[in-house]
Amino acid sequence: MADVKIITDILKCPNCGCPDTVNRAAAAPYKEDGRIPKDAYVAHSVTNKMIVPPTKVSLSVPTLFIYMDICLDCGILYATRAEQRDVPIKYQMAGGGGPPRGAGFG
Ligand SMILES: [Zn+2]
């Protein structure tokens, strides 16, 4: 994967301070048995948007990715990570977003 710049990692629920999320809890046994890589970033959903419009010829565009997950304790949905990546233009144009993503795993 190209350069990934993590802008912020939010390590605890902003409402109750719980560090665990529903998707991390669900993925934990599969990380243990090796079906999910141990270092895979797990989230409920991820959205992305171009930070800079592709106004000139370039191969990629800086894109912001926001990961969301659900607090395991109080149940609120909150942003767990923001990161920036350069995404190839062909992916931005073809899908209206970033590259295809599987099941909320970053
Ligand atoms: Zn919470």
Brief write-up:
The chain has helices at 22-32, 89-95, and strands at 4-9, 45-50, 60-70, 77-88. With 106 residues, it is of the alpha+beta class.
Structure description:
By secondary structure, this protein is of the alpha+beta class. The protein has one domain. 17% of the residues lie in helices and 33% in strands. It contains 2 helices and 4 strands, in the order βαβββα. The protein has helices at residues 22-32, 89-95, and strands at residues 4-9, 45-50, 60-70, 77-88. The longest helix is centred in the N-terminal third of the chain and has 11 residues, at 22-32. The N and C termini lie close together (11 Å). The mean pLDDT is 86. Zinc ion binds at residues 13, 15-16, 18, 71, 73-74, 76. Residues 13, 15-16, 18, 71, 73-74, 76 line the site of zinc ion.
Unique bound compounds: zinc ion
Count of folded domains:
1
The largest sheet, given as strand count, sense and whether it forms a barrel, is: 4 strands, antiparallel
Order of strands, widest sheet: 1-4-3-2
Following the backbone from N to C, one meets helices and strands in this order, namely EHEEEH
**What percentage of the residues does DSSP assign to strands (E)?**
25-35%
Distance between the termini: 11 Å
Helix content: 10-25%
Gross geometry: globular
**Quaternary structure:** single chain
What Rg do the Cα atoms give? 15 Å
Number of strands: 4
